[in-house]
Amino acid sequence: MAEHEWMNEVRALVGKEYGRVYAWDPVNAPMIRQWCEIMEVTNPVYTDEAAAAASVHGALVSPPTMLQPWCEPGLYMNNYPPGSTDENPYESLKLIEAQGYASVVAVNSELEFDRYVRMGEKLYYTTRLDSISEEKVTALGTGYFVTLVMTYCAQAAGNDGADEEVGRLLFRVFKFRPAKVHTKEDAAAAEKPKTPARPAPGMSDDTRFFWEGAKAGKLLIQRCKSCGSLRHPPGPVCPSCHSFEWDTVTASGRGTVYSFVVMHYPEVPPFEYPNPVALVELEEGTRLVAQLVGVKPEEVTIGQAVQVEFNTFEGDLVLPQFRPLASA
Question: Where in this chain does the record put each ChsH2 C-terminal OB-fold domain (predicted)?
């Protein structure tokens, strides 16, 4: 199909490099330890100096998947360290949106690592608008696939060295105009605002029991039949004793907010933003990630008491969510 004239301005941005966004802190052991605790990662090369020294790394290193978190703004949106760029790497999305392509859906994200980063290294990333597709017609509607690539680098220790690239993050979204209606009945239905369907969680043989339990109003946690350890997310083998035998326990559904994030952007339907998501520590001792409901994002606190509730979406999708309990 013929290109819109207004796309010339948008396509002129392809290849544009947006300035540096710095990490608030050098790579450090306390943040790695906290991240490993939250994610339940036990590899000693991240937290045990003696084990790391005896490994191929020779010293403590950061988990590769911490690459993106090192350069995050923190609790407040766009709160980046001094010296970071104030350019908006999403300006192409804004230009496309101004032409009536107001909907957006995340398509995929790919994180690549060149090497482990080490204690004391100072990181930053730059953003490049990698590509914008031709106008595409999909079941969702008509629009453009926009791909951004964030390149992460470690700053050289001295004036003579060069900064070293350590990884990349590819982030792609589809910016689109919803599909047009074709009949009078469709047009009448379109006059009523529609809530996009909430995506169903991925389900496998290892996790099926959890989602079936949710449909029955039960919060089921996997338990090793050999050592009694609880684990979540579910998996085929116990990380503690390596047994393949397991059963489940029905959790009380009570717990506390161990940690949380508030999602702001990109805004993906049908979720409402800001969107609080918590790491909940259950009474039984294990933790799980779930959306918080019935609370304003600014009122969420660490240690807050919460209770599970099972909410139904789109007819048969049942999800466990957590609601803060009233203070005694």
Answer: 249-310
Cα gap 177→8, rounded to integer Å: 19
Residue 228 structure tokens: 């009694």
Specify whether the CB–CB gap between 284 and 256 falls below 8 A. no
Q: What are phi and psi of 225, to 5 degrees?
A: -75, -15
In degrees and rounded to multiples of 5, residue 245 shows phi and psi of: -90, 130
Exposed/middle/buried for residue 291 (C-beta within 10 Å: 0-12, 13-18, 19+): middle
Q: Is residue 303 left, alpha or beta, with left meaning phi > 0 and alpha meaning psi from -120 to 50?
A: left
Q: Which two tokens stand for residue 218?
A: 């039960």
Q: How far from the centroid of its chain's Cα atoms is residue 16's Cα? A: 25
Return d(Cα 305, Cα 302) in angstroms, integer: 9
pLDDT confidence of residue 194: 61
Q: What is the mean pLDDT of residues 272-290?
A: 92
What count of residues does the chain have?
A: 328
Nearest to 147 by CA among 177, 114, 110, 178: 110
Nearest alpha-carbon partner for 235 in 223, 219, 225, 227? 223
**Mean of the pLDDT values across residues 289-318?**
90
Looking at the chain, list the stretches that DSSP marks H as alpha helix, in order from N- to C-terminal side.
7-11, 29-39, 49-54, 67-70, 91-97, 184-190, 208-215
Helices first, then strands: H and E counts in the chain: 7, 14
Buried b (16+ CB within 10 A) or exposed e, 252-285: ebbbbbbebbbbeeeebeeeeeeebbbbbbbebe
Using DSSP's 3-state secondary structure scheme, residue 255 falls into: strand
Helix intervals (H) in 44-183: 49-54, 67-70, 91-97
- Structural domains in the chain plus CATH codes: 8-27+62-190 (3.10.129.10), 208-324 (no CATH)
Q: State pLDDT tens for residues 118-144.
A: 999 999 999 999 999 999 988 889 999
* Residue 76: other Cβ atoms inside 10 A: 9
